[in-house]
Each structure stands twice: as structure tokens, then as C-alpha cells.
């Protein structure tokens, strides 16, 4: 029996899904698999688990709900606990590094990755009576695989007379991928849709599509706030950095000052809260992660004697352009420095009389208590304005939004086909995405959506729908994980949208080269492969398999701190500011001398550009621990953002290794001494072990038959992947010594100026 408060009960009754409870529960009782669709905000995530609980599904086993985003797993578990008047020990969540699951837990929210890991140990999910795969329309790789796996697990559990229910929940997008796929479901599961009350949303396109959408978004928000009636504003940008910047600008333009009137206590509290989010979200997460994990706690004690970066004190540049991570700390500065704030406001002539704005950021890495502020009522007299990444597109529903400002952009991770190294790029979202965003405005009353792009761009340049992740990424890492779970013929796996055959074959071939997979010696010889013990070790690391192999090998040689640093540095793009290819005269580059100095001599020189990276990171961290990171980066040609990213990745890898390997007591040491000559030699072997498929050999004189060849092949290398000769990039410290054999991180085509022809270049 659930006892809900009056307010909660009233709020629930407004949700369209409440009227459908009986139909939904009857369909679930009669079918093992159902698909439930409904617009964002209709109550799927918060209500269905409660329906199941009240129908007795949690009496003997758990109700499990997966979310593609950590944000949703945490905040939804909290919301459901509150609605049901139950503790977080009963309605709990589990994400990587963090969670509050107990042995009393009945309803468990988790990320899809967490459930996939659980499957490795308990393939039929015996602890659960129901699994809800939420946000299936997001088409995250893990959710896609879970759909495929669960379609079979449900059958297994049926045979055992211990039925497991599967509920696939999604917005009303592309349900056909699940229903029209005969390989996935022989019998099409019933599809229920929840009708949502949607008020009309008036859409305004911009005449032009500007590149500086951040600036446009700011202007639009100012305009709406000054000219248009009451109602919350929701702004979609692409990333944490942009979000924080705009939040700061808007807070400055329409400051909210605490009033010292009647309920001082409360106002003070909320006002403090307003300005207290100075920590970078990620670091908060890491800190929490360390605190929450029991194992890590133990480890922490043994690590305390070792030098560590203080997570509280670490300073990054905080000027407008580069304050990527700590932007909110400058919000704090603005607050304390109210004189200059006053002055700035003078330029907004009619602002004095203007209403304050209650501006809140929203992005995945924001700590969950800060995220949940978007659900609270803004202070009396202030207008709510939420600046968000696309987490507000479908994962979280913010009450009372009337105006949506849509940049039309989204940040996605693109993978380098050659190296598998990923980078983030900003692109246009899809039409479906843009329409979801617009829909956020019409939940409680008619709304307005301002698109910061033209209708022509929308029509011609936006894709209809977003391609599922599984068809965009290299699948090496997925292939390995599936093989680790005993899925031998990945090609036959019932994916909702299968990756193409070439993608799968490339992955298998690369994993064999790495030694993570080996051919199964069987008479039928279906060219089957299975995971090797090395492959098992590799799959434990959250990086590309080639980097996982490097980490696995360095544990043997006690080189982990260096490899962690090197892998982190190699995984981040453009750490060192580029020495361009045209600057063939080496004197022209002002960075090169430092790089050559960092490259050192002997074995370290033979470790080439990765060693330069290792030194660069080492030296910049050292400078950072002395508070001089910014100057250091400027003088030595490093991108401060990249340094910050590398550091995050180092912290993450270090924590993960400490969790999975006992007694290594690894820490992120800002004052790491450079490796010795002998260590550099071992690191070179490790690098080769991970990148053995990317080797090139200098073209020998024998190969050059005439002067024409000599012209073309001079200083050239042969790589098995290329027909053309490849050349060393100008930024490489090995350009002078030109070793007989090299390993490269990537090959790309350059555009040479002065009419010269294109060249294939090796970098890293
Ligand atoms: P769906 O999963 O269909 O998108 P949800 O169950 O997430 O819908 O949300 C239903 C309603 O509950 C929404 O209107 C949302 O605003 C409200 N809601 C969700 N979480 C919270 C919260 N933490 N505080 C207040 N309201 C919330
Ligand atoms: Mg939902």
C-alpha cells in the first residue's frame, strides 16, 4: 500500500497516463513484452514503475528501469521515491561509480550500461520481475543491445516458468525499428500509446542562420524577458561550457537579489544556492564517486600519504573564453563584486525596472541536487529561465515552460575511422530533435518556439531523424563486450538497427590483431572467434580496446601512472597547438624547440610524439599545481581545454583501475617525474603492442627506380592501409631522425598551398 501526499496525488491526477493505468497493467499482465509510447512529460518514467509496484511486481523480485543518461537515473529515482513516500533505500539508483541500492531496494533505476554489466554475471536477470527500457528512442548503443538481448532472455525465463516482463518505453518516434523487425520480435509486441495534452506551439524561424548562436540566444532571451508576458524560458545549447557562459551573462543582465523581507531564512537559502554552484560538475561527480564507493574509500585511506591533486583547490583559467570548467565560479565572483556589476548594468538603460530572472543551468554532469532545482518554483516575482543541453529534449521535463529558444545545434561525438579516437563536434540536430524541443513549450498552455535558424536550413540541412549511435561508432569495443558475454556470432545478433557488415568485420579483425580475440579451433570452422584472457582484461577498461591493452600490459610493468597519462593524452584531440605543414623550415615554428627539448634523447626520443605529449601533460600539471597553468599553456603552445580534459580522463581511469585492481593505490600525481630511459623503452613496447596495426616503414632506395620515383618517395613511408606513400607531419619530433619504422596515431590528407599536390600525412 502506498500513501502519497495530497499535493503529489493532485499532480499525478493531472498526468494523462493515470487514466490509462488499468489498460496498461492488463496489457502487461497478459503479454511478456510491451511497447509503451507517449510524448515527453506524459508520465511514463515516473508512473509506470509505481503501477507495477502497486500491482505486486516488487513483492518477490526487483523492478528495474534503465536510462541512457545518468541524469535521468538519479533524478527519476528520487522523484519516484518522493511520490511514493518511500525511502531511497527502497527506490534507488545505480550508475557507474555511484548509487544508493540496498538489500531493501524494490525499484531500481540504473544506466543501461550498468544493466549490461549485470548481464555478464547473471544472464537471465533472475533478480528482476520486470525490466523497463526507458527512452528507447534515444537509441543509445547499450539500450539497443539490451533490446536484442532481452528479446531472448524473456523467452528463456518463460521456459523456466519464471516469467520476466519487458517494457520498452519511448517517445513517439520511430517505433517501427522495434515493431517491424522480424529478427528481433517474431510476434510483434502490443504497442500502447499515451495521449498527451499538447497545446499549440507557434514556431518562429530566424530569417538567417548565424554561426554565433550563443549570442543570438542571449539576445532572444533578453527580448522575450523584456517584452513578452509571464512564462518560463527554456534555451537549448550544445554543451556545459556554453550553458554556463549564457547563465552567467543572463544573471548579470537581470540579477536576482535576495530580499531582506519577511521570510529572510528561506530567501537567503535559495539565493545562496543560486550562487553556490562553483564546482565543476564533473569534479563533483568524481568526488562523490570516490566518497560513495566503499572500495574506493578504503583505497583512499591508503592513498592519502601520496601527493594528489586537491580536487577542491585546483585552479583553471577563469577568463571568459577559457573558463570551460569552472565558469560558475566566476558567477560567484560577479556576486561578491557587486560594484562592477552595478556599473555593467548601467549600459542596459531600461533594465533597472526590469523583473529579475531566475537563471538555472542544466546538463548531464551537473550534480543532481543542482539539477533538481529546475523543478522547483522560481522565487516570487522572478521569471524562470533554464539554459540546457539536449538533456531537456526528452530526459527531463521542466514544468511551466512557455518559450523555447532553440539553437538547432547538438554536440555529438564523432569517431575517427582510422584511429577510433573520438572528438566532439557541433552539428545541426535532426528535424525530429527540433520538434521535440519545440514541444517542450506547449505542456501547460499554448507556447512559442524561437528557432535560431532559417526554415530553409531546417528543410534542407536537418536530417529527418538522428542515426542510431550503433551505426555511427566503431564497434570494436561493443564486439569485445558481446564476445565477453558469450555471444559468438555477433553478426546474427538481433539488433534493432544492425551496424553494417564491414563495421563488424573490421572490428573483429582489429580485435584479433590486438590479441583480444582468437579463432576457435573447431572442425566446422565458421571462422568463429572467442575472447582471450587478455581480451577479458582489456574489456575492463572504459577506453578503446587498443588503449585498454596498453593499460592491461603496463600493470605488469608497474608503469600504470605513465600509461594512464599517455592514454588520456592520446584520447584527447589537439592537445598541442599545431605546427602547420607548410612551415617546413623548422625555425619558423616557435613551439618546435620546446617540443624537441621535451622529446629528450635515447629511448624517450624514440617514443616520439607520445612522449612529447606525456611530458607536456606532466609539465602543465606541475604548472597547474603551482597556479600557473594559463601562462604555461600560452608559452608552450598547449590548449588549456585539452589539458583539463586529459586531467578528467586521468582521474576517471585512475578511479576505475583502483576499483578493479586491488592494491595498486594509483593516484593522479601532478608532480609525476618523467619516466627513466628504461621505462621509456618499455612504454615504447607497450605503445607498439596497442597500435600494431598502424605501422609504417621507410621507403628504401631500392624501391625508387628513377628520378621521378625519387622525387615522389623522398622521405616517404609505406603503410599497409594506404596505397599512396605517407609522410611524417611537420609537427612530429621524429621528422629529423626519420626512423626506419614508425607507429602513427592517424593518417590524414593535407591540402598543400602554392599549387602543391595533396599529401598523406602521419600524425602522432
Ligand atoms: P515522461 O517519462 O513521459 O517523459 P515523466 O514521468 O518524466 O514523463 O514526467 C511526468 C511529469 O512529472 C512531468 O510533468 C514532470 O514535470 C514531472 N516531474 C518529473 N520529475 C519531477 C521532479 N523531480 N519534481 C517535480 N516534478 C517532476
Ligand atoms: Mg521519461
From TrEMBL:
One MF term in the entry's GO annotations: ATP binding
Compositionally skewed regions (Basic and acidic residues) per UniProt: 258-277
Signal peptide: none
BP GO terms, sorted: maturation of SSU-rRNA from tricistronic rRNA transcript (SSU-rRNA, 5.8S rRNA, LSU-rRNA)
Catalytic activity: ATP + H2O = ADP + phosphate + H(+)
Domain Helicase C-terminal: 310-486
Keywords for the protein's UniProt record, in alphabetical order: ATP-binding, Helicase, Hydrolase, Nucleotide-binding, Nucleus, RNA-binding
Stated name of the protein: RNA helicase
UniProt organism field: Pseudolycoriella hygida
Organism taxonomic ancestry: Eukaryota, Metazoa, Ecdysozoa, Arthropoda, Hexapoda
Residue window of the full protein shown: 241 to 1004 of 1168
Amino acid at each position: 500500500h502506498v500513501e502519497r501526499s495530497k499535493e503529489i496525488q493532485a499532480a499525478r491526477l493531472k498526468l494523462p497516463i493515470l487514466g490509462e493505468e488499468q489498460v496498461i497493467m492488463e496489457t502487461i499482465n497478459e503479454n511478456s513484452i510491451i511497447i509503451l509510447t507517449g510524448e515527453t512529460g506524459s508520465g511514463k518514467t515516473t508512473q509506470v514503475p509505481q503501477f507495477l509496484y502497486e500491482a505486486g511486481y516488487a513483492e518477490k523480485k526487483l523492478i528495474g528501469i534503465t536510462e541512457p543518461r545518468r541524469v535521468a537515473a538519479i533524478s527519476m529515482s528520487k522523484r519516484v521515491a518522493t511520490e511514493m513516500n518511500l525511502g531511497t533505500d527502497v527506490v534507488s539508483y545505480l550508475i557507474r561509480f555511484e548509487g544508493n541500492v540496498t538489500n531493501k531496494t524494490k525499484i531500481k533505476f540504473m544506466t543501461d550500461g550498468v544493466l549490461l554489466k549485470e548481464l555478464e554475471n547473471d544472464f537471465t536477470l533472475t533478480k528482476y520481475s520486470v525490466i523497463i527500457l526507458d527512452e528507447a528512442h534515444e537509441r543509445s548503443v547499450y539500450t539497443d543491445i539490451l533490446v536484442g538481448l532481452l528479446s531472448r532472455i524473456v523467452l528463456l525465463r518463460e521456459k523456466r516458468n519464471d516469467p520476466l516482463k519487458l517494457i520498452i518505453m519511448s517517445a513517439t518516434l520511430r517505433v517501427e525499428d522495434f515493431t517491424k523487425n522480424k529478427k528481433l520480435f517474431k510476434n510483434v509486441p502490443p504497442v500502447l500509446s499515451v495521449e498527451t495534452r499538447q497545446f499549440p506551439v507557434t514556431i518562429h524561424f530566424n530569417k538567417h542562420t548565424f554561426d554565433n548562436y550563443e549570442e543570438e540566444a542571449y539576445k532572444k532571451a533578453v527580448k522575450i524577458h523584456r517584452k513578452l508576458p509571464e512564462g518560463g524560458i527554456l534555451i537549448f545549447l550544445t554543451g556545459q561550457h556554453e550553458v554556463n557562459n549564457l547563465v552567467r551573462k543572463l544573471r548579470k543582465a537581470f540579477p536576482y537579489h535576495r530580499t531582506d523581507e519577511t521570510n529572510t531564512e528561506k530567501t537567503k537559502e535559495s539565493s545562496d544556492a543560486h550562487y553556490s554552484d562553483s564546482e565543476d560538475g564533473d569534479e563533483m561527480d568524481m568526488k562523490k564517486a570516490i566518497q560513495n564507493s566503499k572500495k574506493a574509500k578504503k583505497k583512499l585511506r591508503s592513498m592519502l600519504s601520496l601527493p594528489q591533486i586537491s580536487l577542491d583547490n585546483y585552479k583553471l583559467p577563469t577568463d571568459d573564453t577559457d573558463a570551460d570548467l569552472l565558469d560558475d565560479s566566476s558567477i560567484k565572483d560577479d556576486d561578491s563584486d557587486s560594484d562592477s556589476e552595478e556599473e555593467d548594468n548601467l549600459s542596459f538603460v531600461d533594465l533597472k525596472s526590469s523583473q529579475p530572472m531566475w537563471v538555472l543551468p542544466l546538463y548531464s554532469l551537473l550534480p543532481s541536487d543542482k539539477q533538481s532545482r529546475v523543478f522547483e518554483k522560481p522565487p516570487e516575482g522572478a521569471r524562470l529561465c533554464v539554459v540546457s543541453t539536449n538533456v531537456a529534449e526528452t530526459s527531463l521535463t521542466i514544468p511551466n515552460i512557455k518559450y523555447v529558444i532553440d539553437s538547432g545545434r547538438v554536440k555529438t561525438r564523432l569517431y575517427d575511422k582510422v584511429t577510433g579516437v573520438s572528438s566532439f563536434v557541433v552539428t545541426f540536430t535532426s528535424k525530429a530533435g527540433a520538434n521535440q524541443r519545440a514541444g517542450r513549450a506547449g505542456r501547460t498552455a499554448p507556447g512559442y518556439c524561437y528557432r535560431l535558424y532559417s526554415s530553409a536550413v531546417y528543410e534542407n540541412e536537418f536530417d529527418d531523424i538522428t542515426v542510431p549511435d550503433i551505426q555511427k561508432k566503431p564497434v570494436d569495443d561493443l564486439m569485445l563486450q558481446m564476445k565477453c558475454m558469450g555471444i559468438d556470432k555477433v553478426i546474427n545478433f538481433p539488433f534493432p538497427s544492425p551496424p553494417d557488415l564491414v563495421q563488424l568485420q573490421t572490428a573483429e579483425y582489429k580485435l584479433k590483431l590486438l590479441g583480444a580475440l582468437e579463432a576457435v579451433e573447431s572442425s566446422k570452422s565458421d571462422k568463429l572467434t572467442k575472447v582471450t584472457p587478455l581480451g577479458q582484461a582489456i574489456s575492463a577498461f572504459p577506453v578503446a580496446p587498443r588503449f585498454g591493452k596498453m593499460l592491461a600490459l603496463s600493470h605488469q610493468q608497474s608503469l600504470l601512472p605513465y600509461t594512464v597519462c599517455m592514454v588520456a593524452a592520446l584520447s584527447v584531440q589537439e592537445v598541442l597547438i599545431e605546427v602547420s605543414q607548410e612551415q617546413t623550415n623548422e625555425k619558423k615554428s616557435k613551439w618546435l624547440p620546446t617540443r624537441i627539448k621535451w622529446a629528450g634523447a635515447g629511448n624517450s626520443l624514440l617514443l616520439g610524439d607520445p612522449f612529447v605529449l606525456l611530458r607536456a601533460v606532466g609539465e602543465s600539471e606541475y604548472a597547474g599545481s603551482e597556479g600557473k597553468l594559463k601562462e604555461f599553456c600560452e608559452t608552450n603552445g598547449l590548449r588549456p581545454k585539452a589539458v583539463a580534459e586529459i586531467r578528467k580522463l586521468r582521474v576517471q581511469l585512475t578511479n576505475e583501475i583502483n576499483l578493479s585492481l586491488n592494491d595498486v593505490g594509483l593516484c593522479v600525481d601532478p608532480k609525476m617525474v618523467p619516466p627513466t630511459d628504461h621505462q621509456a623503452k618499455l612504454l615504447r613496447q607497450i605503445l607498439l603492442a596497442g597500435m600494431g596495426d598502424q605501422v609504417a616503414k621507410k621507403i628504401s632506395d631500392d624501391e625508387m627506380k628513377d628520378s621521378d620515383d625519387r622525387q615522389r618517395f623522398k622521405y616517404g613511408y609505406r603503410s599497409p592501409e594506404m596505397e599512396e606513400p605517407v609522410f611524417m607531419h611537420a609537427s612530429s619530433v621524429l621528422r629529423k631522425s626519420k626512423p626506419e619504422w614508425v607507429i602513427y596515431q592517424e593518417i590524414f590528407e593535407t591540402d598543400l598551398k602554392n599549387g602543391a599536390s595533396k599529401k598523406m600525412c602521419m600524425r602522432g
